[in-house]
Specification:
Number of strands: 0
Structural class: mainly alpha
Order of helices and strands: HHHHHHHHHHHHHHHHHHH
CATH class: Mainly Alpha
Number of domains: 1
CATH superfamily: Sodium/glucose cotransporter
Distance between the termini: 67 Å
Length: 511
């Protein structure tokens, strides 16, 4: 217990110290929100990765999908690495950085407003961001509470409040730069921690090959009649596995807290390095989490699955040495705080710049914007804490369900219009509205009246994947039959890609 508490105190002290140090980099809105658009590749890559993978992944998704798909759940982690990280950086990284700077856009709703010349789109996008980031935030607290309960036997409400206060302190003090530096530190902890935990859990089962042999003997007639399904290449349900891969991988392309990391990249070199670092980080952390979760059924004697999947990973870790349990707690705390800081910063800046500035408050100078953003960070954290405590006592107990609703709505609404908006002049304003309404509408309907959906789409995970695919098809189809933007407006917007820049001979030989 002394080791656990000592490590926690050191961790908390470092996080707060970074916030105080980064305060000098948060004197105006550009610095507070985007780090002055001068953040290097390693900080950006780790900020992207740690915002991506939280307690939702480690406790919720790894537990649930490892139980459902066995060792094949590792494909989800690899999909996250190569579709959600590598391909996202390649497709969105450079163009997002160039066009958002050209449009002087600091948030995703502001991008939609300036790209499609519509204040209404900005307001609608801001509301969607705020409403659907809340359940995601509540799920972060839930996952953390289970590990803290296992390690310290601490009441859930105490875990929630401590995590919220500490995250609020360093985000309010140092803004984006504080979150980026802390994300790097937290990312290193996650890398070391996941490798150590996997090694320890497999060792407790007699090693990797012995654990695989044990998994081959596991049967579950309610899931599949296939012998050895849980250590097979694609698991007992390949179709559902594919839906999870799509949601958790392509979903990041439309999440504001993820895409806005590209706004702050420093240079061309930073994009290349960041792509490699981010992908490697995801392979180890996401691949490792789902790989670990794949062995969850070996611990079925310690789990009452009727009480939810979120207890599987804590049960797997409960017999580890105290030092490793302490490392695990710090790992999940790191993952959760990094994601929470990204969410609250995204939500507060969106409300300040896209809803209040120019609409509710007509004359909002730089000082008022900073003050308002910091106040809203406190407000958003309070709301998320209250909802987390209410959710804990309600019937919605699975972390994956909460995250699926949030990811599905945000990515279903934003992915298609954002990506097409970066690449295609033909994307129409009406098509953007269709994507907003369909993405949010599908997930709201799935949450309120799931019985109207076919059996396969009743799951929030599959419904979210469907919402994204629907948007990717609907936006170009609707754009072909609706009014286009003014040609002069489009020329001015896309002119940023044609600007000439001097490069080194490393990139081009010259004449």
């Amino acid at each position: 217990m002394v080791i656990k508490i000592l490590l926690l105190l050191i961790f908390f002290a470092v996080m707060v110290s970074v916030g105080i140090y980064a305060r000098k980099h948060a004197t105006n809105m550009n610095d507070f929100v985007l780090g002055g658009r001068g953040v290097g590749p390693w900080l950006t890559a780790f900020a992207y990765g740690t915002s991506y993978f939280s307690a939702v992944i480690f406790v919720g998704y790894a537990g649930q999908f490892g139980w459902r798909f066995g060792i094949a759940s590792t494909w989800i982690g690899l999909g996250n690495a190569f579709l959600g990280s590598l391909l996202a950086w390649v497709v969105l990284g450079r163009r997002t950085r160039v066009m958002t700077q050209h449009l002087d856009s600091a948030t995703m709703p502001d991008f939609f407003a300036k790209r499609f010349h519509s204040k209404a789109l900005k307001i609608a996008a801001s509301i969607i961001v705020f409403v659907f980031l809340v359940p995601y935030t509540a799920s972060l607290y839930n996952g953390l509470s289970r590990l803290f309960g296992m390690a310290f036997d601490i009441d859930y409400s105490v875990c929630v409040i401590v995590m919220a206060v500490l995250t609020g302190v360093y985000v309010i003090a140092g803004g984006y730069m504080a979150t980026a530096i802390n994300d790097f530190i937290q990312g290193v902890i996650m890398l070391v921690g996941i490798v150590a935990i996997i090694a320890a859990v497999l060792h407790s089962q007699g090693g990797f090959l012995e654990a695989l042999n044990k998994l081959a003997l596991v049967t579950d007639e309610s899931t599949t009649t296939q012998v050895g399904a849980f250590n097979s290449f694609f698991g007992p349900d390949p179709a559902s596995l594919l839906g999870v891969v799509i949601l958790t991988s392509l979903g990041t392309w439309g999440l504001p807290q993820m895409v806005q990391k590209f706004y702050a990249i420093k240079s061309e070199k930073a994009i290349k390095t960041g792509t490699i670092v981010s992908t490697a980080f995801a392979v180890i952390v996401a691949g490792g989490c789902y790989f670990l979760g794949g062995f969850g059924r070996l611990f079925s004697a310690q789990v009452d699955i009727s009480k939810g999947y979120d207890q599987i990973i804590p049960a797997m870790l409960s017999s580890l040495p105290d030092l490793l349990i302490a490392v695990t707690v710090i790992l999940v705390l790191s993952a959760s705080m990094s994601t929470l800081s990204s969410l609250v910063l995204t939500s507060s800046t969106t409300l300040t710049l896209d809803l209040l500035k120019g609409h509710v408050v007509k004359d909002m100078d730089e000082k008022k914007q900073l003050l308002t953003t910091r106040i809203l960070i406190v407000f958003f954290i309070l709301v998320s804490v209250i909802l987390a405590l209410i959710q804990y006592k309600s019937s919605v107990t699975f972390i994956a369900q909460l995250m699926g609703i949030s990811w599905g709505a945000l990515a279903g609404a934003f992915l298609a219009p954002f990506m097409y908006g970066l690449y295609w002049k033909g994307t129409s304003k009406i098509a953007v509205w269709v994507s907003f309404i369909s993405g949010a509408g599908i997930m709201i309907a799935n949450m309120i009246v799931p019985d109207i959906f076919p059996a396969f789409l009743k799951s929030p995970i599959n419904a979210g994947a469907f919402a994204m695919i629907f948007g990717l098809v609907a936006v170009p189809v609707v754009s072909l039959f609706t009014k286009k933007q003014d040609a002069k407006e489009l020329e001015e917007i896309f002119s940023c890609y044609d600007e000439e820049v001097a490069v080194t001979k490393k990139k081009a030989l010259g004449k």
